[in-house]
């Protein structure tokens, strides 16, 4: 596939070198189009050596070949990483003052922008408006990761890891991902053919008033990876997505007719959507971070400051996972829960996970540590899979796509049992 890799002038440009190598190793032809400023971080010689293609930055270079038009017209996919605040602004305004922005105007193929900048720049109203404009036009703009930035700063604005960008970009072009017959995608088993799966993903939001809500840091990436992995292995999947960004959902749905997405916002909406879809499901995976509490009342108008403390009364929400176990929508289905734990003075992450596994009663519980830059909003995860008795049956660490397949391996092992007669044997038809 013919890919244009745009590189804007940010310190994260060095990560684009790894992205270029990854795309090339998958057999794609990559033309790098850097901005002039980006060459202060990574030089022209590096791009030409690794891409095997000439590198130009201005519309007045290669004039005889009309490069400022030809490159964009020829491209089958355009990826810009990093996309700085300046690049986002120029792209939103339709500028064509260098070769990269001219290419963006000409391209009619899928375009993915991976922003990277300081938190203040990402959250500035101008950048927020520019991102919204680009998304309205059909451009796929990733949310940046949260973590260490230049210097001692931390916060949202970090460029996602190259493997995450590559997966999100290739997912926009049907058939582009996993085309290498020797790669990992080719080795995945088709052991879920005919199996009907429900996966919940993301984080629920419980409204306080028309403006504010109680929420959490879940991006939905692990749930989306689970949905995609199940579809790749042959399952028919319903993805109940709680406040998951469109470009993240695209990682599960693009190029697949096996994933149906049901968007929800609150915990109660998620509960109804999951139970409705689960009536015909063989497996339900509750990967969403569902709020444990919601405001007792929701204000009709925006709450105002009063100059003093504000009281907020919370009530417990329904435990959706526990309800699926005690009152299953379909008898005999396999239920898999997720437990995000931090550990505290009363116990470790695993100890809390074991207690929750015994309390919830799900067939499997996937326990993962969160906080301090782990799990939420990151491209990787580190999980321990427990059975209903709290015993460890599997562990996995690495990219969330790989973790997703490890979870499905654990589901298959649980269903099949030591000799094909495990506790849930026969639940899956495949």
Summarize the structure.
This protein is an alpha/beta fold.
Please describe what this structure looks like:
- The chain has 430 residues and is α/β, with parallel strands linked by helices.
- It folds into 2 domains: 2-170, Rossmann fold (3-Layer(aba) Sandwich); 188-298 and 310-416, Rossmann fold (3-Layer(aba) Sandwich).
- Helices cover 33% and strands 23% of the residues.
- It has 15 helices and 19 strands.
- It has helices spanning 13-25, 44-51, 67-74, 85-93, 99-106, 119-123, 125-136, 162-170, 184-187, 221-232, 246-253, 267-278, 320-326, 349-360, 400-416, and strands at 2-7, 29-34, 77-83, 111-115, 140-141, 145-148, 154-158, 196-202, 206-207, 213-214, 236-242, 259-264, 283-286, 293-295, 314-316, 334-341, 364-369, 380-387, 392-399.
- An 8-stranded mixed beta sheet has the order 12-11-8-13-16-17-18-19, with helices on both faces.
- Helix 1 (13-25) links the parallel strand 1 (2-7) and strand 2 (29-34).
- The longest helix has 17 residues, at 400-416.
- The two termini are 34 Å apart.
């Amino acid at each position: 596939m013919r890919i244009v890799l745009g590189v804007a002038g940010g310190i994260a440009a060095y990560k684009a070198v790894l992205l270029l190598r990854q795309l090339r190793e998958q057999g794609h032809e990559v033309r790098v189009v850097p901005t002039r400023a980006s060459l202060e971080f990574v030089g022209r010689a590096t791009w030409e050596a690794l891409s095997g293609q000439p590198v130009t930055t201005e519309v007045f270079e290669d004039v005889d070949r009309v490069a400022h038009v030809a490159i964009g017209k020829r491209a089958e996919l355009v990826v810009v990483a990093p996309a700085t605040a300046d690049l986002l602004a120029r792209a939103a305004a339709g500028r064509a003052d260098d070769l990269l922005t001219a290419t963006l105007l000409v391209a009619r193929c899928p375009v993915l922008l991976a922003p990277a900048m300081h938190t203040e720049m990402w959250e500035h109203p101008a950048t927020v408006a520019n991102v919204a404009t680009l998304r309205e036009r059909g451009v796929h703009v990733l949310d940046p990761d949260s973590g260490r930035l230049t210097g001692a700063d931390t916060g949202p604005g970090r460029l996602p890891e190259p493997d995450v960008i590559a997966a999100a970009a290739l997912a926009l072009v049907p058939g582009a991902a996993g085309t290498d017959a020797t790669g990992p995608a080719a080795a995945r088993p088709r052991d879920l053919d005919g199996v009907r799966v429900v996966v919940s993903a993301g984080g629920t939001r419980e409204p306080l008033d028309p403006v504010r809500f109680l929420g959490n840091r879940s991006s939905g990436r692990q749930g989306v990876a689970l949905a995609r992995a199940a579809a790749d292995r042959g399952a028919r999947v319903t993805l109940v997505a709680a406040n998951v960004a469109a470009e993240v959902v695209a990682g599960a749905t693009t190029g697949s007719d096996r994933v149906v997405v049901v968007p929800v916002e609150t915990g109660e909406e998620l509960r109804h959507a999951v139970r409705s879809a689960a009536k015909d499901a063989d497996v339900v995976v509750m990967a969403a971070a569902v709020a444990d509490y919601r405001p007792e009342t929701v204000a009709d108008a925006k709450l105002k400051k009063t100059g003093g403390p504000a009281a907020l009364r919370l009530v417990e929400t329904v435990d959706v996972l526990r309800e699926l176990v005690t009152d299953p929508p379909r008898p005999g289905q396999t239920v898999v829960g997720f437990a995000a734990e931090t550990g505290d003075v009363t116990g470790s992450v695993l100890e809390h996970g074991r207690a929750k596994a015994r309390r919830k009663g799900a067939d499997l519980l996937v326990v993962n540590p969160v906080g301090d830059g782990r799990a939420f909003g990151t491209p990787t995860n580190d999980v321990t899979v427990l059975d209903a008795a709290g015993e460890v049956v599997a562990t996995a660490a690495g990219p969330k796509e790989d973790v997703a397949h490890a979870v499905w391996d654990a589901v298959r092992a649980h269903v099949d049992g030591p000799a094909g007669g495990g506790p849930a044997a026969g639940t899956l038809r495949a």
